[in-house]
Design a protein that fits this description.
This protein is an alpha/beta fold. It has helices spanning 13-22, 36-46, 61-65, 86-92, 104-119, 122-130, 159-170, 185-188, 197-200, 223-228, 246-255, 293-311, and strands spanning 4-7, 24-27, 50-53, 73-76, 95-97, 151-155, 174-178, 192-193, 206-209, 233-237, 258-263, 282-284. Bound molecules: 2-keto-D-gluconic acid. 2-keto-D-gluconic acid is lined by residues 54-55, 78-80, 103, 287, 289-290.
Length: 323
């Protein structure tokens, strides 16, 4: 008999096919990801042993308490796990896993795309073309800011931050970083470490956010932090919207303090703050940092590998808690 799985999120055809081949899988029926109530109902009805989901499912302590005893593992198709109460899962003995490593390059690519588009006004230029152009643009009109050779601060120098640093070096940028701990030299690769986040900010022409969400980093980028950046800086966030005070960011973008921002993540998703959509100096994307075909397949497969490991009595590959 195949193990029983609730597939709670929309994912790629290849991942769904593998889930169906290897598991007795309940595949979500609707057009969207399952809600907590739907997951609970499906898990009870199906006596599910595993749940495959992503960050659209808030697995709070209450949600975990509502799961049937049959559930042994929950695998999120994401590296971020701020949507999961890991302590509550641990208390119930439910293994929880994420998908680190496989999405670093694509997420870093996306951050660089947003940085370049924000600095060089990619969206505004595209809009001019789609409206037919046909007027003169003077040498001094519609100017962006130079990227090459500038200083970029990286908040959160984990795997994705380091992948972003590699790209920044390709643009001859000077890399500064802040994180909880200093990296060993072979990972730091010449980047300057700032144990004090605020001390780094005045030196950042660009600031790119790659730290985890959650209470410890909530609103790290607030009005004070933004005021410490040089005038005309550019902010990029592909990590979590919770790291930013969005009112303060809106003020910094409209006052001219920031030249531009590139935002992939928001405090409320998908109901993001529509004030940002009205600003020409903001490049927006709908939380798609990892959204290449190859990477989304790799993330889904990694999550299935984790489930298969746990259900066969092996240790999880990417456990969020361990014995
Ligand atoms: C999303 C992410 O999970 O891995 C993460 O933590 O934020 C992303 O990869 C993915 O976009 C699905 O929402």
């Amino acid at each position: 008999m195949k193990p029983r799985l609730v597939l709670a999120c929309l994912t790629t055809t290849a991942v769904i096919a593998r889930a169906r081949a290897e598991f007795d899988a309940i595949v979500l029926p609707g057009p969207g990801d399952m809600t907590v109530a739907e997951v609970t109902e499906a898990a009870v009805r199906h006596r599910a042993e595993a749940i495959l989901f992503t960050n659209t499912l808030p697995l709070s302590a209450a949600a975990i308490a509502g799961l049937p005893d049959s559930v042994r593992v929950g695998a999120t198709i994401s590296v971020g796990h701020d949507h999961i109460d890991v302590a509550a899962a641990r208390a119930r003995g439910i293994a929880v896993t994420n998908t680190p490593g496989v999405l670093d390059d694509c997420t870093a690519d996306h951050a660089m795309m947003l940085l370049l588009a924000a600095a060089r006004r990619g969206i505004e230029y595209d809009r001019i073309m789609r409206r037919g152009w046909r007027y003169r643009i003077g040498q001094g009109d519609l100017l962006g800011v130079r990227v090459s050779g500038k200083r970029v601060g990286i908040l959160g120098m984990g795997r994705i931050g380091q992948a972003f640093a590699r790209r920044a070096r390709g643009f001859d940028m000077t890399v500064l970083y802040h994180g909880r701990t200093r990296l060993p030299p072979e990972q730091e690769r010449g980047a300057s470490y700032f144990p004090d986040f605020h001390a780094m900010l005045p030196q950042c022409d660009f600031l790119s956010v790659h730290a985890p969400g959650g209470a410890a980093t909530d609103r790290m980028i607030d009005a004070r932090a933004l005021s410490l950046l040089p005038d005309g800086a550019v902010l990029v966030n592909v990590a979590r919207g919770s790291l930013i005070d969005e009112d303060a960011l809106f003020d910094a973008l409209t006052s001219g303090k920031l030249f531009a921002a590139g935002l992939d993540v928001f405090r409320d998703e998908p109901a993001f703050d529509l004030r940002f959509a009205a600003l020409d100096n903001v490049v927006l994307s709908p939380h798609v940092g990892s959204a290449s075909r190859e990477t989304r397949d790799a993330m889904g497969f990694r999550a299935l590998d984790n489930i298969a490991a746990v259900l066969s009595g092996q240790p999880a590959i990417d456990p969020l808690w361990s014995m």
